[in-house]
Amino acid sequence: MEVSGYKSGLKVGLATAALGVLLTMACASPPGVEPPAALSNETVDAHIRFLSSDDAKGRDPFSEDIAIAEDYIAEQFRAAGLSEFQDFPGFKDQFSFDYRPRREPDAVPTTYEMRNIVGYIEGTDPVLKNEYILFGAHHDHVGVRGEEEDNIYNGADDNATGTTAVIALAEYFAAAGNNKRSLIFATFTAEERGLVGSRHLAANLPIETGQLVCMINFEMIGKPAADGSWNLMYLGPEKSTLDEIFIEALDDDSPIQLVGPEEHQVRYFYGSDNVAFDDEGFITTTLASPNSTDDEYYHRPNDHYEFLNIDYMSDVIRAVVDITEPLLSGEATPVKTEGGGT
Predict the structure, then answer these.
(1) Which of 135, 198, 171 is nearest to 324 (CA)?
(2) Alpha-carbon distance 273 to 288, whole Å?
(3) Bond preceding residue 159 cis, omega within 30 of 0
(4) Residue 157, phi-psi category: left (phi > 0), alpha (psi -120 to 50), beta (remainder)
């Protein structure tokens, strides 16, 4: 079956209206005062509640239900004042994808129409604006499975949390307006089907070769570490100097501590959308909770909103503002380290 289009959900408009007050606060801060509302617990909570609700039906990338989340993300980008790339009208990177089940390599493929959601903020420096930092996360999950009463796989932590981070950061940086380098904000479709969306965008970036400084991916940032520590894990520290830049820039007063992967977590660098960009030769990392690799609710129907820690998640997003400041200002530029090539 070919999916030729998507339906826009009425609930997207209602949710957008409900967020209007918060977004207005973010854009109406007094001159010289950082706009904190886009990073507030209340704003983070509003985004994650909507994206992980039953209305989105688990955000299966091969169903029309995924449009509920995609239209919502695009509307948040528009409301925040992001710019559209000429190739992506309405913030939508649309492409066709032929899918065959892995266990049926000879099957006739099914063609799906897919959408990444992509917007940008131009840098303020006449030279550095030609360099880009990309913030990304996948917005899909695994949909509805089985006949049991709770058969919607909401994917609250995986990966409505990462998508929320991208939206909140887009709102914040658009309101702050102080990024010298340009910023791309992207949410990817069909990560759960083999990094389909991120592989498409990484190979078809709407900027010139060499302009992408790095890609920062978010994956499952909704819960503290298993021991309760408010740690944030960076993956791939052996590949570039991004981790050094982050550690140096983290505010001493931040409740978040940066940690590298444990031995059993190293392989997870190759498990999310960052690897699509790594394969294209770009510098990249994934930021994730140390709990994400061992979460008992991973790919289970009880990956629900109520099991998230919104305080932790909000502090993670605020910490990202601190650790990426040298990148946005042009004070720091990551480089690949020895053995860090693809």
Answers:
(1) 135
(2) 12
(3) yes
(4) alpha
Contact between 231 and 259 under an 8 Å Cβ cutoff? The reply is yes
Is residue 214 within 8 A of residue 281, CB to CB? The reply is no
Q: Residue 287 has which token pair?
A: 């930021």
Q: What is the pLDDT of residue 3?
A: 28
Q: What is the CA radius of gyration of the chain?
A: 19
8 A C-beta contact, residue 254 and residue 319: yes
Match 């006449």 to its residue by tokens. Answer: 126
Helix (H) or strand (E) holding 76: helix 66-80
**Cα–Cα dist 18/278, whole Å:** 38
The DSSP code sequence of 7-35 is PPPHHHHHHHHHHHHHHHHHH-PPTTS--
pLDDT in tens, 17-47: 444 434 444 443 444 444 468 899 999 999 9
**263: CB partners within 8 A, 6+ apart:** none
pTM for the structure as a whole? 0.89
Exposure of 205 in the CB half-sphere (CA atoms within 13 A): 24
Helix (H, G, I), strand (E, B) or coil at 324: helix
Q: Judging by DSSP bridges, how do beta strands 143-144 and 284-288 pair with one another?
A: unpaired
| Residue 235 near residue 286 (C-beta atoms within 8 A) | yes
Question: 58-80, pLDDT tens digit by residue?
Answer: 999 999 999 999 999 999 999 99
Residue with tokens 């990202």: 320
Kind plus residue range of the DSSP H or E element containing 212: strand 212-219
Report pLDDT digits (tens) over 286-334: 999 999 988 888 888 888 999 999 999 999 999 999 999 999 999 999 9
Using the structure block, give the residue that is written with the tokens 């903020």. Answer: 121
- Mean pLDDT, residues 206-210 taken together: 93
The whole-angstrom separation of Cα 170 and Cα 176 is: 10
Q: Which domains does the chain have, with CATH numbers?
A: 10-329 (3.40.630.10)
* pLDDT over threshold 60, residue 133: yes
